[in-house]
Specification:
about 160 residues, mainly alpha, about 75% helix, about 0% strand
C-alpha cells in the first residue's frame, strides 16, 4: 500500500513537534530540529510521487482484473464480471495515483466475488492474482532504503 507523500511528511512533522521537541533541552539541538521542521514544511507540497511505479501497479492490476472478470463470467457471475469491467473502464481516465488506488479497491471486491463462487476460487483467478500480487510486493519493497533500526535502538 502506498501512502501519499504529504501524509508521510505530516506524520514526521507531528512526531518531531509533539514527541521530540519537548524533550530537547539544548538550545542548539532545538534550533537544528526547527530547521528540519522548516525544511519538511516547505518540501511537503513540492513532493510528487513518481508515476512509473504507479503506472506499473495500475497496469498489473488492470491485467489481473481483466482475467478475473473473465473467470467470474465463466463461473456464472456475469453481474460481478460486469461490475469489475465497469470499474476498470472508469479508472482508465484517472491520474496514475487515482487509477492505481481505484484498481486496488476493485481488486479487493473482485477477490470477494471470486470467493463467493459456488466452486470456490478458480485456478485461473489464483494465477491472475499471483501474477499481480507477487510482483507488486517486490515493487513496494524494492525502493526502500536500508533500515536504520540498529542505530535507532542505540539512541
Amino acid at each position: 500500500m502506498l501512502i501519499p507523500p504529504e501524509k508521510l511528511v505530516d506524520g514526521c512533522l507531528e512526531t518531531l513537534r509533539e514527541e521530540v521537541l519537548p524533550y530537547l533541552e539544548k538550545r542548539s539541538a532545538r534550533g537544528q530540529l526547527y530547521a528540519v521542521l522548516d525544511v519538511l514544511q516547505n518540501l511537503r507540497d513540492r513532493i510528487e510521487e513518481k508515476t512509473a511505479p504507479l503506472e506499473n501497479e495500475a497496469d498489473s492490476a488492470r491485467m489481473a482484473l481483466e482475467q478475473i472478470a473473465a473467470v467470474l463470467r465463466d463461473g456464472g457471475d456475469a453481474v460481478a464480471a460486469d461490475a469489475v469491467a465497469a470499474e476498470v473502464a472508469s479508472a482508465a481516465g484517472e491520474s496514475s495515483a487515482d487509477r492505481a488506488a481505484a484498481l486496488g479497491r476493485t481488486l479487493v471486491s473482485a477477490i470477494e466475488s471470486l470467493y463467493a463462487l459456488p466452486s470456490g476460487m478458480p485456478e485461473a483467478a489464483q494465477r491472475a492474482l499471483a501474477a499481480h500480487l507477487g510482483p507488486q510486493a517486490i515493487r513496494d519493497v524494492a525502493p526502500l532504503k536500508p533500515s536504520l533500526l540498529n542505530e535507532i535502538s542505540k539512541g
